[in-house]
Input
Amino acid sequence: MGTVHLRFPLAEVLIAAEEAAAATEHRKASDETEPGPALWWIKSDGTCLASNAAGSRAPDAYAQGWGPGTDARSILGGDGFAHPLPLCESGWDTDGGTLLDFLRESGRCRHTVVILAATRQQDGFRLGLSTE
Output
């Protein structure tokens, strides 16, 4: 499969990201040892970005055209998963800022969509983010 471009509403992604960043406890994905603030890219019944805050109340931000009731197995094949996107690690933009910095700046610039470009590789995914 080639690269898939998933479009998420930035306002909803920011709500989930801010909740995860402010939380004192975080749920951990199956391959994590020490979870920190993150968005989870979830592929199951549809595909979404969700807060990993323990007891999260933030709504999931579903990709356009991939809400609940859609069969997300056609996106990059395989089974469902929850892939963490750490909010406080650098490398998500050209300035070396964090994912949270990138999302906040995109909101300040009045962008409305976050685009997750995902390519399945042998050992996982190659991911890229942009906004419009």
User: Anything to note?
Assistant: Residues 4-131 form one domain. The helical segments are 10-22, 99-108. The mean pLDDT is 90.
